Input
Amino acid sequence: GEDVEQSLFLSVREGDSSVINCTYTDSSSTYLYWYKQEPGAGLQLLTYIFSNMDMKQDQRLTVLLNKKDKHLSLRIADTQTGDSAIYFCAESSGGGADGLTFGKGTHLIIQP
Amino acid sequence: NAGVTQTPKFRILKIGQSMTLQCTQDMNHNYMYWYRQDPGMGLKLIYYSVGAGITDKGEVPNGYNVSRSTTEDFPLRLELAAPSQTSVYFCASILGEKLFFGSGTQLSVL
Output
């Protein structure tokens, strides 16, 4: 079945850029997503990208997609303490009717 | 606009008890989902529904049942609670390509 892989932890200094990486196996993925989960809260959709795009920018967030290598990344510029959270990569195929497949999440730790 | 609402937020069950996790959405979305989240394991799909009267099993359906009598409501039922069902449960609905989540139900089975 489909698989989505992420590293479990990333530690960065406040003010630096954070880059969270994700790989997926489903070549029929149509949309790829980044969700943010703060402690005790649900998942908040941060951004998503259609599979025929290779980059999407939204304020401090930049998503890069390498479809050939099935690699997705999320770059957060000027990382702040409020960015501390777990970030989930997810993919869908077939319009998402049967749900999204999620990675295990990357815990972003901000050092002062 | 409330979005996706789940109740209760927390619950402790004894082994063998039953309960229903409630989920309702006011966005008139057809597609709804139940996920469970275990530490370090990401989210696993339990059941989903593409519309009223239609439900399908996800990746981890055993021990759960669902119903979808209306577009708004998608309750998740545990008939005989087991410790392995200790988890955080998230309901979600989708419109187009965007999945919206509820705030979760933290369930402990002791």
